[in-house]
């Protein structure tokens, strides 16, 4: 039997199924919380305690210990499932609503003895088949509830996995012993590092575009530049608002983040400044490339128009002469002369070659 987590999309679709104007006759499926829990672990003195835990047992365990906390990871939970955890841990209803419905801007909110942080995750997809419908950067979300003895992370998107973050922290008990704030820092550091990786990949793409735009006699596809500019703007909306929340955590915004962890957040803030500056530079450079591409297209159109005008001028000479002698008047000059026909051809060829030479000298042809 497949695990419940693999059946989650089908269950969610069945629960949303309805007939227009009426409720579906299918009963709503009850899904246990475990179907949405990626991992639930209890940590004491920086080490993970053995065993499998429910959220109730985990909280009871840490409340009976000193220097212990629980970390629960959820992936796209429904409102019904997250409500059970929210009741046990005392999560604020507004933060819970944001965590379920997602599509939030990066932010940091403080509710009494709890912090709620939203981070946007990004992933570089690639430039193959770049078109107006193609996405170069995909976004997701990570919401983190941080209390004195718990961390609850809610993920939206397939590329926002925190498994590597959890493994790295578990391999560093000294860091993990700093508590839930250390987990929040590790998540923020992981997300911001992904920003750096994505900006480096985008920078390579923009460098290729720049070389193509300024290469002589290259065919410039301005749609590619517009697609890249759209993706950079989406990346800016996902990344730049996070700078404020990270800076708050470095300035002692909450007592839940001790001084030892605040120094780590300063490093994250430095990386955020680097990413923000890169994105601003991308936006300006792409605007310049758009102007350069349009100027190149305009120049090519002007060159084509000059060539067309030159050829029309050359063709107009035989057309004019043929039109005159096609009027069939008896008294036209050289009409009955035996050398009239070759003479007319000679005049046409000489004039056309003269015009061709003049246009070629002026670089119209």
UniProtKB/TrEMBL annotation:
Membrane topology: Multi-pass membrane protein
Name under which the protein is recorded: Magnesium transport protein CorA
Transmembrane residue ranges: 308-327, 339-359
Function: Mediates influx of magnesium ions.
Places the protein is found: Cell membrane; Membrane
Annotated gene: corA
Transcription listed as a keyword: no
Pfam families: CorA
Record family assignment: Belongs to the CorA metal ion transporter (MIT) (TC 1.A.35) family.
Sorted UniProt keywords: Cell membrane, Ion transport, Magnesium, Membrane, Transmembrane, Transmembrane helix, Transport
Major location (coarse): membrane
InterPro entries (UniProt xref): CorA_cytoplasmic_dom, CorA_TM1_TM2, Mg/Co-transport_prot_CorA, MgTranspt_CorA/ZnTranspt_ZntB
């Amino acid at each position: 039997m497949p695990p419940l987590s693999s059946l989650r999309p089908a269950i969610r679709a069945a629960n949303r199924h309805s007939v227009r104007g009426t409720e579906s006759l299918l009963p709503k499926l009850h899904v246990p919380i475990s179907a949405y829990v990626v991992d639930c672990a209890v940590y004491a003195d920086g080490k993970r305690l053995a065993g499998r835990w429910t959220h109730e047992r985990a909280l009871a365990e840490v409340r009976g210990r000193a220097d212990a906390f629980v970390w629960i990871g959820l992936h796209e939970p429904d409102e019904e499932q997250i409500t059970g955890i929210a009741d046990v841990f005392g999560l604020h209803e507004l933060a819970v609503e944001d965590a379920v419905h997602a599509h939030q801007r990066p932010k940091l909110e403080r509710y009494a003895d709890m912090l709620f942080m939203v981070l946007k995750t990004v992933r570089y997809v690639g430039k193959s088949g770049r078109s107006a419908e193609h996405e170069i950067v995909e976004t997701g979300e990570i919401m983190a509830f941080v209390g004195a003895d718990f961390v609850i992370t809610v993920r939206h998107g397939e590329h926002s996995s925190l498994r590597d973050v959890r493994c790295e922290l578990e391999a560093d008990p000294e860091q993990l012993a700093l508590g839930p704030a250390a987990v929040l820092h590790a998540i923020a550091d992981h997300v911001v590092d992904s920003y750096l990786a994505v900006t480096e990949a985008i920078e390579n793409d923009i460098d290729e575009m720049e070389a193509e735009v300024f290469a002589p006699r290259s065919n410039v596809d301005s749609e590619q530049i517009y697609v890249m500019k759209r993706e950079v703007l989406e990346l800016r909306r996902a990344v730049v608002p996070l700078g404020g929340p990270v800076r708050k955590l470095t300035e002692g915004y909450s007592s839940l983040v001790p001084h030892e962890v605040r120094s780590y957040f300063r490093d994250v803030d430095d990386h955020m400044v680097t990413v923000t500056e890169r994105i601003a530079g991308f936006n300006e450079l792409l605007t310049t490339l758009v102007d350069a591409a349009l100027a190149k297209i305009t120049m090519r159109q002007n060159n084509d128009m000059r060539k067309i005008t030159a050829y029309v001028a050359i063709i107009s000479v035989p057309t004019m002469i043929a039109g005159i002698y096609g009027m069939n008047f008896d008294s036209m000059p050289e009409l009955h002369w035996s050398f009239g026909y070759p003479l007319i051809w000679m005049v046409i060829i000489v004039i056309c070659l003269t015009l061709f030479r003049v246009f070629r000298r002026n670089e119209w042809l």
